């Protein structure tokens, strides 16, 4: 009972993209060879795949850090780097993936179902791919992007039709062993079962699955004992069978009290809405009074039967050891399962695999003004612009210029001006933990916005005070430069000379 392995926090890291390379073609008698640097390979993804051979999350409990392979860098002579291998992690049927904040990311049902838990970084373009009419021989290449890294929570939620629930040692595993071909561990100490045992039951021409949920004790819904770990398994089961020990000699225990305790725990358990389950307390329930081979137990069972029936429960008196009452039980459960399945089919079938919600707009970005006075900064947040920054080799001026071009074309400069940034403002690109800081030097200045409306800050006034004639002149010359630059860009784009794949594609 030391380790419980059906819930584990997994740290996944996809492979880095390989760097692109800047290289110049060399050939005898051809001194002016063109750029021939190849692209870096993409990093491998970390992928979860449902494997029917896998039954527990034990492996991930033992080694919770998993990385996929990096992409290889490009090379001269137009050789692209190899793609990094994906890391494929087998998980059992019924694994639910959530973020650390509890949001359901994927509900993995059905052998072969895949979920990309971390996406590999893209390889950087080499200077061959970056060359264009205007940039005939780029002296730079793009860096590979880092792979996605994140923590995910894996939880195993059983996929049985019927859950056998009850106190420890009530005989749940014994019942699974006599109702199906499964051979779970059975013992006379509590908490023998730590992970549910699934068994397939045949009743006439109907088949369904039963699972013995680990023993419940009072307070389980608040996490007592193994608590929530148990109830989690019940979440997907449509029929709950209370297994009640009629032979226990423990003080304070009797069938009616035991049943009340378990019912309270079911009612207190808050399930995961995203799995489309109904509250546990609303599911079909039957009562199985077990150990009727013990004479006093059978007497007790017959004594409480009328009470239970009055409360509306269907009651079965059985013995897992003597194998009595089992046939009636299997057929009764089959009936309830069929009814629950028919009801579920009538409802809208919930989509099983929840796809990771994409960013609102992958290509877009927002500019946020942060702090004030000397701490004032403008933060640009967006997936695409952050990617560009990651791809930039800041030691290479040409690469930095290329980044500036891309940002300008995406409208980042205009947005900064609109947000109130001026030359020399601190601009951050990226989220808190990996932002790159710039002293902003506008290339295409939105002159009108820059010149109007400001001037409340006196320090700024000192720096930028000019006569209105000067301002007007500057405004117009900037405006002209801006228009000219825009036209040039538009012409280039129209002639298809930009080779940026993520731009137009
Ligand atoms: N006499 C009698 N003993 C039974 C019967 N069913 C189970 N037992 C005994 O009760 C004890 C507990 O049985 P298990 O099947 O392991 O009980 P469980 O509910 O799975 O218990 P946990 O896994 O600990 O929650 C074992 O010693 C069984 O042999 C029965 O019908 N009659
Ligand atoms: Mg058991």
TrEMBL record:
HAMAP family: GTPase_Obg (MF_01454). Residues 61-83, 451-505 are annotated as: Disordered. InterPro entries: G_OBG, GTP-bd, GTP-bd_Obg/CgtA, GTP-bd_prot_GTP1/OBG_C_sf, GTP1-OBG_CS, GTP1_OBG_dom, GTP1_OBG_dom_sf, OBG_GTPase. GTP binds at residues 166-173, 191-195, 212-215, 290-293, 319-321. Belongs to the TRAFAC class OBG-HflX-like GTPase superfamily. OBG GTPase family. Mg(2+) binds at residues 173, 193. Its EC number is 3.6.5.-. It comes from Janibacter alkaliphilus. It comes from the Bacteria. It is an enzyme of class 3 (hydrolase). GO terms for molecular function: GTP binding; GTPase activity; magnesium ion binding. Residues 456-495 have a biased composition (Basic and acidic residues). The lineage of its organism: Bacteria, Bacillati, Actinomycetota, Actinomycetes, Micrococcales. An essential GTPase which binds GTP, GDP and possibly (p)ppGpp with moderate affinity, with high nucleotide exchange rates and a fairly low GTP hydrolysis rate. Plays a role in control of the cell cycle, stress response, ribosome biogenesis and in those bacteria that undergo differentiation, in morphogenesis control. Residues 160-338 form the OBG-type G domain. The keyword Magnesium applies. Monomer. Signal peptide: none annotated. Residues 2-159 form the Obg domain. This is GTPase Obg. Its cofactor is Mg(2+). One of its GO terms (cellular component) is cytoplasm.
């Amino acid at each position: 009972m030391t380790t419980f392995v059906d819930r584990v926090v997994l740290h996944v890291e996809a492979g880095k993209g390989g760097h692109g390379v800047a290289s110049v073609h060399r050939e005898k008698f051809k001194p002016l060879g063109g750029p021939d640097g190849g692209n870096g390979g993409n990093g491998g993804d970390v992928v979860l795949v449902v494997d029917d051979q896998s039954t527990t999350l034990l492996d991930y409990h033992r080694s919770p850090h998993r990385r996929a392979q990096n992409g290889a860098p490009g090379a001269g002579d137009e050789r692209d780097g190899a793609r990094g291998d994906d890391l494929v992690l087998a998980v059992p049927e019924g694994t639910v993936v959530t973020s650390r904040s509890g949001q359901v990311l994927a509900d993995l049902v059905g052998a072969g179902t895949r979920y990309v838990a971390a996406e590999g970084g893209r390889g950087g373009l080499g200077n061959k791919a970056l060359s264009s009419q205007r940039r005939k021989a780029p002296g730079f290449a793009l860096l590979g992007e880092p792979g996605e890294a994140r923590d995910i929570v894996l939880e195993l939620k059983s996929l049985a039709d019927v859950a056998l629930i009850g106190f420890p040692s009530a005989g749940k595993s014994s019942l699974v062993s006599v109702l199906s071909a499964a051979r779970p561990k059975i013992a006379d100490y509590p908490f023998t079962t730590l992970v549910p045992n699934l068994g397939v039951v045949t009743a006439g021409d109907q088949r369904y699955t039963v699972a013995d949920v680990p023993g419940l004790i009072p307070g389980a819904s608040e996490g007592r004992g193994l608590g929530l770990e148990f109830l989690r398994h019940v979440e997907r089961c449509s029929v709950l069978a209370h297994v009640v020990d009629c032979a226990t000699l423990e003080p304070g225990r009797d069938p009616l009290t035991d049943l009340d305790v378990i019912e309270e725990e079911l009612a207190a358990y808050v399930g995961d809405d995203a799995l489309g389950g109904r509250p546990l307390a609303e599911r079909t329930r039957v009562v199985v009074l077990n150990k009727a081979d013990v004479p006093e137990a059978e007497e007790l069972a017959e004594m409480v039967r009328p009470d239970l029936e009055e409360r509306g429960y269907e009651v079965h008196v059985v013995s897992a050891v003597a194998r009595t009452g089992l046939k009636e039980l299997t057929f009764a459960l089959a009936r309830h399962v069929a009814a629950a399945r028919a009801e579920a089919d009538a409802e809208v079938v919930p989509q099983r695999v929840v796809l990771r919600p994409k960013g609102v707009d992958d290509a877009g970005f927002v500019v946020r003004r942060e702090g004030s006075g000397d701490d004032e900064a403008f933060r640009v947040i967006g997936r695409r612009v952050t990617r560009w920054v990651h791809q930039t080799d800041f030691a290479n001026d040409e690469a930095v210029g290329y980044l500036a071009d891309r940002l300008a074309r995406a409208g980042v400069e205009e947005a900064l001006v609109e947000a109130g940034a001026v030359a020399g403002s601190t601009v951050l690109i990226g989220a808190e933990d990996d932002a790159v800081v710039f002293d902003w030097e506008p290339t295409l200045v939105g002159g009108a916005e820059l010149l109007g409306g400001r001037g409340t800050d006196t320090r700024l006034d000192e720096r930028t005070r000019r006569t209105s004639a000067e301002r007007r002149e500057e405004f117009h010359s900037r405006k002209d430069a801006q228009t000219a630059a825009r036209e040039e860009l538009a012409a280039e784009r129209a002639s298809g000379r930009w080779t940026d794949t993520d731009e137009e594609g």
